[in-house]
Amino acid sequence: MFIDSHCHLDFPDLAKDLDQLLVNMQENQVTHALCVSVNLRDFPRVLALAEAHHNLFASAGVHPDYEHEIEPSAHELAKLAHHPKVIAIGETGLDYFRLQGDMEWQRERFRQHIRAALEVNKPLIIHTRSAAADTLRIMREEGASQVGGVMHCFTETREVAEQAMAMNFYISFSGIVTFKNAIALKEVAKSIQLDRMLIETDSPYLAPVPFRGKQNQPAFVRHVAEEIARLRAAELNDIAIATTNNFFNLFKIHRNGLPT
């Protein structure tokens, strides 16, 4: 079985077809999915999905690209994360690719998320793009290793992966790893230890080959696993078992789908 460790099923383009998407998950042996929050305004609909479906979970956080949001405090985030179906804080992190100028507001937002995770003892979902050095520095400064988490939609170097794993973080691969030009990323997926790996779709974005350019969905996470198995010359079932176990272990979830 497979687990989509990062998707956005509350986004309108996916939410309108939710029943069919859940059927597609079942048909592709995708048993669970983590629906990730990107702002607090829409958090209630993320939580509603998790509450309505035993195999869906939620996170609480504000994406670093959402510049004009009311800045969440660590206490506010922690309060939301006390709900048993909220299994992580995020997504959070740094993104210097899309936004320019003084990014101190983004760094301070990231710190608040790490402090919230520490307060509730739940892992972090970290987004980093063109900001790896600052991301790792703030993780160290704020003690993110105490709760660990996942480097979501990983596109960085093996060195960045090693530094993150040393802080108790998992590395999650999306459909990007199936892209023909993702040569360096394929090498990372081939070489890192399997017991620190997760798979995801980040749907509705980044659909894997053979669906590249189309709307992504959790059922397609199987194709991410298939590519990783091919790269590592491994059995698909071994990738499925490892990434599923890693998800349950990181997010402290029983096999029956209930948080510990």
TrEMBL record:
Gene Ontology molecular function terms on file: DNA nuclease activity; hydrolase activity, acting on ester bonds; metal ion binding
The keyword Hydrolase is assigned to this record: yes
Pfam families the UniProt entry points to: TatD_DNase
Segment forming the signal sequence: none
Gene3D superfamilies noted in UniProt: Metal-dependent hydrolases
PROSITE patterns in alphabetical order: TATD_1 (PS01137)
Chain sites annotated for binding a divalent metal cation 1: 6, 8, 91, 202
This protein's record includes keyword Phosphoprotein: no
InterPro entries: DNase_TatD-rel_CS, Metal_Hydrolase, TatD-like, TatD/YcfH-like
Highest taxon of the lineage: Bacteria
Positions with a binding annotation for a divalent metal cation 2: 127, 152
Keywords carried by this UniProt record: Hydrolase, Metal-binding
GO cellular component, one term: cytosol
Family label: Belongs to the metallo-dependent hydrolases superfamily. TatD-type hydrolase family.
NCBIfam families the record matches: YchF/TatD family DNA exonuclease
This protein's name: TatD DNase family protein
Species annotation: Nitrosomonas ureae
